[in-house]
Amino acid sequence: MWRIICEWLFPVSCLGCGASGIALCTACGPSDADAVHFHISGVPGVAIGPYDGDLRAAIVAMKRGERAYLDAFAAILACHITPGTILVPLPTTRRRRNVRGFDQAIELARRVAMLTGAMTHDVLRKRGAAQRGLGRLARLNAWGRFALRADAMLPVEAVVVDDVFTTGGTLRDGIATLRAAGVQVTGVVVLAWTAPGRNHRASGVVVPEATSVIGV
Ligand SMILES: [Zn+2]
């Protein structure tokens, strides 16, 4: 009922073609052929597409606080998740969550879990204050962004969920935190992959050898 009221109050339409009822329709969203497969810290990962075009615009809108994109993204991410998987989202800081109104990785993981029969364990929190005062490069390369939540129920195995693979720094940090706690990370799913040589080179960050890309 609430969803019907919301759709009436805030009609959703596709960012690409304007079709009603979904924020990014299957025709405008990435297809299977757009998926980017990569490895990071020895873990296989997949992005539903390159960080470009309508996908990029949709992610930017989501980060501005538009929840309608979460459902569209979750439906595409779900194709890469098998039932019974335990998803661990990489959360954002409390400050960003408060500005946006939600934590996108946590919301995506929950929606994907509902669609696929996977489970989600919110075991990580992102530290905010420790990163302050660092320059962009230092932030990208920093470790210790994440800590275990006090009430964390740690799974034996997990697939990590994040929004955009930019340099891989955040993912490597999240994987390392989980491994240090004894969790075996078996996969990574993200919304978008940023091509090396664009943002990576522009930011002065060298793509580490541990990151290899298949199918870009
Ligand atoms: Zn469309």
Write the topology of this structure:
Blueprint: H1 2-9, E1 36-40, E2 43-50, H2 53-63, H3 68-77, E3 86-89, H4 94-100, H5 104-116, E4 119-120, E5 124-126, H6 136-141, E6 146-148, E7 157-165, H7 169-180, E8 184-193, H8 199-202, E9 212-214
Parallel strand pairs: 2-8, 3-4, 3-7, 7-8
Antiparallel strand pairs: 1-2, 1-9, 5-6
The structure holds zinc ion.
Distance between the termini: 42 Å
Total of DSSP H or I helical runs spanning 4+ residues: 8
Mean pLDDT: 85
Radius of gyration: 17 Å
Beta-strand segment tally: 9
Task: Please give a handful of descriptors for the protein shown.
216 residues, alpha/beta, seven-stranded mixed β-sheet, two-stranded antiparallel sheet, 8 helices, 9 strands, 22% strand, globular, binds zinc ion
Walkthrough of the structure:
The chain is an alpha/beta fold. The chain contains 8 helices and 9 strands. It has helices spanning 2-9, 53-63, 68-77, 94-100, 104-116, 136-141, 169-180, 199-202, and strands at residues 36-40, 43-50, 86-89, 119-120, 124-126, 146-148, 157-165, 184-193, 212-214. The strands form 2 sheets. It has a 7-stranded mixed sheet, with helices on both faces. Strands 5-6 form a two-stranded antiparallel ribbon. The longest helix has 13 residues, at 104-116. It is globular. Mean pLDDT is 85; it is low at 199-210. Residues 14, 16-17, 19, 25, 27-28 line the site of zinc ion. Zinc ion (ZN) binds at residues 14, 16-17, 19, 25, 27-28.
